[in-house]
Design brief:
Order of helices and strands: HHHHHHHHHHHHH
Distance between the termini: 33 Å
Strand content: under 5%
Structural class: mainly alpha
Mean pLDDT: 84
Number of domains: 1
Number of strands: 0
Shape: elongated
Largest sheet: none
Length: 261
Amino acid sequence: MHLYLKLLSGSLRSRMQYKMNFLISSLSYALIMAVDFILLAAILQRFDDVKGWNLYEVGLLYGISSVAITLYRVFGVEIHNFERYMVEGEFDSLLIRPVSPLSLLLTKNLDLSRIGGTLQGVIILIISIIGLHEKSVDTFFLILYLPVSILSGVVICFSLGLLTATIAFWTQRIKDFQTFTLYAPFNAANYPMNIYPGWLKLIFFTVIPVGFMNYTPVLFLLNKGGDLWNLLLPPAVAFVFLFIAYRFWQFGIRHYHSTGS
């Protein structure tokens, strides 16, 4: 962990050499993500609710999902872009160093422009909580649980990213896979899971468990169903899924064939 923090600090300092680029990129990314929620808000204002979920309740789901995916993209940028290590043969250089390849990937680069998306998600969470409070919803336990939900979401995002990256050991390219394992599922997680057909909900609670990071706990915290297990499941699922992803990553490394093989 000490070495990880040292490498992370060095990466952060190198990225902050271009402060204006950081500010403009962060603002641009935040505005792009904000447009998505503005369109969603416009639809909900017209129809009042979606399957019993009003604008502020959907805002909670959207905010948690946004913060989780953008934090993953900040720290896991090299995992997300792992394809080029296979295509360009750069992974070999990581294997000859006396540090875990995964540690090197996590500290090699930071995508600080995604911080804008994180702040945008936090703002939506604040607005949603204030709106719910004004509607006489008890938000005390909701606020206390938010860090757990967000952290669980980040771990689930990272696990899905790592699983997808590992596929590159056999396929070299993973961009098409990311559409099905990252982009589509996390876009779907912005909305209540009860709007989807049964077979799709099954996927979102098993193979690609994005439903656990926000929908499961919020369902209980907003008194829409469930019990205390709804609060225990997200961190438990995140831990199990991370373990599976890491073991699959190790399996992939053992079966990796160098570009010089």
